[in-house]
Amino acid sequence: MIGATILALFAFSALLMVLWNALIPDIFGLTTINYWQALGLAVLSKMIFGGLPDRRSHDFNERRERFWGNSPAREKWMNMSAEEREEFIKRRKQAFRRNPFSRDDFKKDFEFDTTPDDSKDGGK
């Protein structure tokens, strides 16, 4: 696994060097770079920007759960049968064609409980 990662880094560095030398000097007037500079640029980019987490990473799954959490829309979606999901998608596509910025059809499809919670405002 480590060998594949190192091989991928070297291949990415070579690709980065080729792309840089083909594009950047003509577009921005900068100089060309050699392979080791490309490798350093790739490592520096990884250190600065970190990269995107993949689906196997703990961080990605944690953020997905925090985003979707106990969403009423997600719960309703998970309780739908395959036929109900297909029908929902079909209706959403039709509604989007009519008015892509309207949320009225979406609200009809999900019918959320919109009753105010008395505990939030102290029962007033």
Structure description:
The protein is an all-alpha fold and 124 residues long. It has 6 helices and no strands. The longest helix is centred in the first third of the chain and has 27 residues. The N and C termini lie far apart (61 Å). The mean pLDDT is 76.
Key traits:
single chain; 124 residues; mainly alpha; 6 helices; 0% strand; elongated
Helices and strands, in order, run as HHHHHH
Uncertain segments: none
Query: So how many helices?
Result: 6
Which descriptor suits the 3D outline? Answer: elongated
Strand coverage percent: under 5%
Over all CA atoms, what is the radius of gyration? 25 Å
Largest sheet: none
Which structural category do the helix and sheet elements fall into? mainly alpha
N-C termini distance: 61 Å
Tell me how many strands there are. 0
Topology:
Elements: H1 2-28, H2 35-49, H3 58-68, H4 72-79, H5 82-98, H6 104-110
Short description:
Helices cover 69% and strands 0% of the residues. It has 124 residues and is an all-alpha fold.
